[in-house]
Design goal:
Blueprint: E1 14-22, H1 26-37, E2 42-45, H2 54-57, H3 78-83, H4 93-106, E3 113-114, E4 119-125, E5 130-135, E6 140-148, E7 170-173, E8 188-192, H5 196-208, E9 211-216, E10 223-224, H6 232-240, H7 242-250, H8 272-285, H9 301-318, H10 322-328, E11 342-343, E12 355-359, E13 365-369, E14 372-375, E15 379-381, E16 384-387, H11 396-399, E17 402-404, H12 411-414, E18 433-435, H13 448-469, E19 473-476, H14 478-493, H15 523-535, E20 541-544, H16 550-555
Parallel strand pairs: 1-2, 1-6, 2-3, 4-17, 6-18, 7-16, 8-9, 8-16, 9-12, 10-11
Antiparallel strand pairs: 4-5, 5-6, 13-14, 14-15, 19-20
Length: 556
């Protein structure tokens, strides 16, 4: 291994590691911290030129987390918890990136992280019981374990529009935003997409651009974030109560302490007035409370309809042009079944005279022109196009790597009808390969940091146990995997989630199998299940000792 004097990061890798970790976001960093303390050798490969994962790439204007800062943070270090000061209720991307970099430095993690290095393949050698991992830079290393800390929303998707390569202006995908400042001043800007990302970026871009045209296919529900400076008293209280707050989050439904209380009543069990007052209180408080204020909003369509109508009426009140307001009003799916954005002045932005909303469901985009774009109805002159068009979520970043398990079987082939995992941690046929927040785990339905910590702790504890027991190989049992997939589907099908065309269902990617990918049984229940599996000697996993004398050879 060689290092430059300027960078604390290694620049090339070879040889054997106990674990190769792919990705240096929240998950990869914690993996290094924990595995190193347990005495394992570890090498992280990170495609970006710095650590941070999602928060490294998503530098688009307005990028912000929609989990409150004091909960969207690591819990593994009491000192870190106490010393870090968050400045806003919902942290903006630069502050999260600063935090992640602080963690990397504070715990001296960089020396195990090779940046600017994209992993291209991971192949399992059955006889040697080792993975061989290759990178685009030409590194080839072997390892006993591979941990895919590749993130759930890290394969950006630009729709295959005709003519994009001939566009003469600037264009960007929000998930691959440049490091230089994009100057929208005096420019005619088009934003395609009104998911969480578009909804955050649109008000900020509108404030700068000469003219902004928003190309909306599906109107989205959105709730006001009511972001603001962190209240010092609230911060003090949070720090004083951190152990209790974290514990509450770990056993909650969504991985947030703030949202851990389950309401006693359904939306139709109260009077119209009581229901309206409850929604109004949530709206005024800001944040993600509204779809959780009654206990049946994700199960009961009639109940959910009341929340939908409340938000639609808010849109009608905010947006002055009634035609534009109606275009912005979502219908045909239940609120919360697509990831619910939180905004700052999103709907208000359409009152600007410099903002135009275009319905591309009625008139789809036909092609990108050298100076703009054309829908089936009209042509728009644009200097900058921003694609807020989302990701090949949950599976995209895994399948982008040529992963081959036992007998050379590819992950792509195994998951051709949709992802199949045991606990979202492993998939049968791929020994010693772990996923962090993989499909079949609460992942994107939870506070990601809570779920990431749980997975990294489970995986590293597992590696430690195997080492102590002299076990070389762990692999999900196909029967346990089938039963888990069935359970994930069963729980998902009790909710309204599968009724929406969301990225949770793979519906945003043409040809992607329609499978409800995350586990909606709750973070706490899921943790109980994972703990029980361990207590029962890794129930549902096949454990195999190394062949005689192999351990020594492998480490040589
Ligand atoms: P997204 O939710 O998948 O939204 C993509 C948008 O692009 C949708 O409005 C989609 O329309 C539109 N679109 C895609 N292809 C199109 C086409 N060919 N023509 C016209 N419109 C097209 O992606 P995202 O907004 O980047 O968000 C992804 C996830 O990232 C979020 O759901 C959230 O989990 C996470 N995120 C979190 C935060 C936060 O913490 N605050 C912020 C941003 C993102 P359709 O709906 O019709 O497909």
């Amino acid at each position: 291994m060689s290092t430059t004097t300027a960078s604390p990061h290694p620049t090339a890798s070879k040889g054997f590691f106990d674990a190769v970790v792919v990705g240096a976001g929240f998950a990869g960093l914690y993996a290094v911290y924990r595995l190193r303390r347990m005495g394992f050798t570890v090498r992280v490969f990170e495609a970006g030129s710095g650590v941070g994962g999602t928060w490294f790439w998503n530098r688009y204007p307005g990028a912000r987390c929609d989990v409150e800062s004091y909960e969207y943070s690591y819990s593994f270090s009491k000192e870190l918890e106490q010393e870090w000061v968050w400045t806003e209720r919902y942290p903006a991307q630069p502050e999260i990136l600063k935090y992640v970099n602080h963690v990397a430095d504070r715990f001296d993690l960089r020396r195990d992280i090779q940046i600017n290095t994209r992993v291209t393949s991971a192949h399992f050698d059955e006889a040697a019981e080792r993975w061989t991992v290759r990178t685009a830079k030409g590194d080839t290393v072997t390892s006993q374990f591979v941990i895919m800390a590749t993130g759930c929303l890290s394969a950006p998707r630009v729709p295959d529009f005709k003519g994009l390569k001939d566009f003469k202006g600037e264009w960007y995908h929000t998930g691959d935003w440049p490091h230089h400042e994009v100057d929208f001043r005096g420019k005619r800007v088009g934003v395609i997409g009104t998911g969480s990302t578009g909804i955050q970026a649109i008000p900020v871009i509108a404030a700068q651009a000469k003219h902004l045209t928003v190309f909306q296919r599906t109107p989205n529900f959105s709730l006001p974030a009511r972001n603001g400076p962190q209240d010092p008293e609230r911060a003090r209280q949070m720090k004083a109560r951190y152990p209790e707050v974290r514990e509450k989050a770990r056993w909650s439904g969504n991985g947030y302490a703030l949202l851990s209380d389950i309401p006693a009543k359904g939306a139709l069990e109260v009077s119209d007035e009581e229901r309206r007052t409850a929604y109004e209180r949530c709206w005024q408080l800001g944040g993600p409370l509204l779809p959780r204020v009654f206990n049946d909003l994700v199960f009961n369509k009639a109940s959910n309809d009341t929340a939908c109508e409340f938000v639609r009426n808010k849109i009608r009140q905010i947006v002055k042009d009634s035609k534009v307001a109606e275009l912005l009003c979502p219908s045909g799916y239940a609120i919360g079944t697509k990831r619910l954005p939180m905004d700052t002045d999103y709907f208000e932005t359409y009152n600007r005279t410099t903002v135009t909303l275009v319905d591309v469901r009625a008139a789809p985009i036909e092609e990108i022109l050298p100076n703009g774009l054309r829908t089936t109805q009209a042509t728009y002159q644009l200097d900058i196009v921003v694609f807020a068009t989302g990701y090949d979520a949950m599976t995209g970043s895994l399948l982008a790597i040529d992963i081959r398990g036992s007998q050379g079987r590819t992950l792509r082939e195994k998951w051709s009808a949709g992802p199949r995992t045991y606990l979202g941690l492993q998939t049968a046929g791929f020994p010693n390969l772990f996923m962090v927040t993989g499909p079949g785990s609460p992942s994107v339905l939870s506070n990601m940091v809570t779920s990431i910590e749980q997975h990294i702790e489970w995986i590293s504890d597992c590696m430690d146990t195997l080492r102590k027991q002299g076990v070389a190989r762990i692999e999900a049992d196909l029967k346990a995997e089938d039963a888990w997939v069935e359970h994930v589907n069963e729980v998902g099908n009790k909710t309204l989630y599968p009724t929406a065309n969301s990225w949770y269902m793979g519906a945003n990617i043409p040809g992607k199998p329609r499978v409800f990918m995350p586990y909606i049984g709750g973070v706490g229940n899921y943790r109980t299940k994972c703990n029980e599996v361990v207590a029962k000697g890794y129930e549902g996993f096949i454990l195999a000792a190394p062949a005689q004398g192999e351990t020594q050879a492998r480490r040589a």
